[in-house]
Amino acid sequence: LERNGIKSNEAQMLSDALKTNSTLLTLDLYGNSIGDNGVQALSEALKTNSTLTTLDLLGWSSDPIGDNGAVLSEALKTNSTLTNLDLGGNSIGYDGAQALSEALKTNSTLTTLDLWAI
Prior knowledge:
With about 120 residues, the protein is α/β, with parallel strands linked by helices.
């Protein structure tokens, strides 16, 4: 779904599907404008999703994730399947990076976290 014009509303719909989906392994939302509301919804889905291993949220859109990217840290505390997370190119900032750092203290499955140019 890379560069498909997906915005916050569509990301929320995808998140609803992820809550019950039991087959999808990779979700690539690179270059979409999901914004803070979209990432909040994805974070909620990751708390219950038990199959997704790779989530690409590489930014460079007109509506980057921003400081609220820190909400992903809550999902990382409980998610036990995600191994690759790409948040590069978003405006997560210091607070978001600090929250993610705290989540990594308890997460035992994430092997790759890309924070390039945050």
